[in-house]
Design brief:
Elements: H1 6-34, H2 39-63, H3 74-82, H4 84-109, H5 115-140, H6 159-190, H7 195-206, H8 208-223, H9 227-246, H10 251-254, H11 261-265, E1 282-283, E2 290-301, E3 318-320, E4 326-338, E5 350-354
Parallel strand pairs: 2-5
Antiparallel strand pairs: 1-2, 2-4, 3-4
InterPro entries: Rhodopsin_dom_fungi (IPR049326), SAT4-like (IPR052337)
Family: Belongs to the SAT4 family.
Membrane topology: Multi-pass membrane protein
Length: about 350
């Protein structure tokens, strides 16, 4: 086993080692706060397993001489080529597991029955279709499989099959990444929170842009037959994707916020198309009108998501009811405008509504 490409091999292990603690922290945070894992957590574990399998295959290929292909023996060449399809499937499976995990996470944050839920379901369906196409195309792009390592020019697969697999993988991967990145940014822009907090939350998801950049770089190296560089960028791309998917579950560790028990961890704004507008009272001149504000509050009981998802983007304000339980306090505002010439009396009213679901 020569030393050619040793730096790339070290980079593979660094990428894998970087992703492991984030996955471990995500699982620890989820388990200690809600006592169980959701479907997106299992998908992240699946992604890490595929990622580790990809590392093992690439290590095996390097042991056979991947770092210096012109000097590879015929029997080793066959062994390397035999590993190309399994490595490709594990690479795609790891990335798609992360994509599925993120969309399931977004769907849990959406208000039930909203148009966002329909959008996420459509996205999930599209991801399934793209993954199945890439999966079966990778397996049957060259069949029988021994044509891939055959030394007989008349018994080889044509380049068209490989080009179709290459371009569909690249385009589907980049397109799905763009869609998945755009979804949370659109949702965060609708939240009634401070700009600083919006930027912090959007920044977590914006790490996905690095995944897109890595995908483009990988596609370029693969097109130029830079095998070692392609493998290294693939590992970096997958590692960044896994880390980015773990960050929302570690929100309190990244952008701050209370972490006092599961009840505080579970509070979150549901993301829907409904907006709430709040405005302080403004008094105009004598010739103008007066804007009066009738404000109220609604208190709902704190509860856990029955599906087991307690991830959150931002933390809602809490109040404590007479029964000692933490409640979510939602302030509403009604604006009334009238002309100064009218004889209507200006004033504000406050209505307190206490409701228990």
């Amino acid at each position: 086993m020569g030393g050619n490409g040793l730096g790339h091999v070290v980079a593979w292990y660094i990428c894998t080692a970087a992703a492991v603690p984030f996955v471990a922290l995500r699982m620890y945070s989820r388990w200690t706060r809600i006592g169980k894992l959701a479907i997106e957590d299992f998908l992240i574990i699946l992604a890490l397993c595929c990622f580790s399998g990809e590392l093992a295959i690439q290590q095996h290929m390097w042991n056979l001489g991947l770092g210096d292909m012109p000097k590879v023996k015929p029997e080793n060449f066959k062994g390397i080529i035999q590993m190309v399809v399994p490595a490709s499937i594990l690479y795609v499976s790891a990335l798609w597991a992360v994509k599925f995990a993120l969309v399931f996470f977004y769907k849990r944050l959406a208000a039930p029955g909203s148009r966002l839920v329909l959008l996420y379901n459509i996205t999930l369906g599209g991801l399934v279709a793209m993954y199945l196409f890439i999966f079966f195309d990778s397996i049957f792009q060259c069949f029988p499989h021994d044509k891939q390592w055959s030394m007989d020019p008349k018994y080889k697969c044509g380049h068209i099959a490989f080009e179709i697999n290459y371009w569909t993988t690249v385009l589907f991967n980049i397109f799905s990444d763009v869609v998945i990145i755009a979804l949370p940014i659109i949702m965060v822009s609708r939240l009634q929170i401070k700009l600083k907090q919006k930027l912090a939350v959007a920044g977590v998801f914006a790490l996905g842009f690095f995944v897109i950049i890595a995908s483009i770089i990988r596609a370029i190296y693969s097109l130029r037959n830079k095998t070692m560089l392609t493998c290294t960028v693939s590992m970096a791309e997958t590692a960044i994707a896994i880390i980015a998917a773990c960050l929302p579950a570690l929100r309190s560790m990244i952008i701050g916020g209370s972490t006092n028990g599961a009840s505080s961890y579970g509070q979150h704004y549901e993301l829907s198309s409904t907006r709430r507008k709040t405005q302080e009272p403004n008094r105009l001149g004598n010739s103008g009108g007066i804007i009066s504000v009738a404000s109220g509050s609604r208190t709902t009981k704190s509860h856990h998501n029955p599906n087991g998802s307690e991830d959150s983007l931002v933390k809602a304000g809490l109040s404590v009811g007479l029964d000692g339980r933490e409640n979510i306090r939602v302030d509403t505002t009604i604006e009334t405008m009238y002309d100064a010439d009218t004889k209507s009396r200006a004033g504000s009213s406050r209505t307190n509504l206490d409701s228990e679901p």
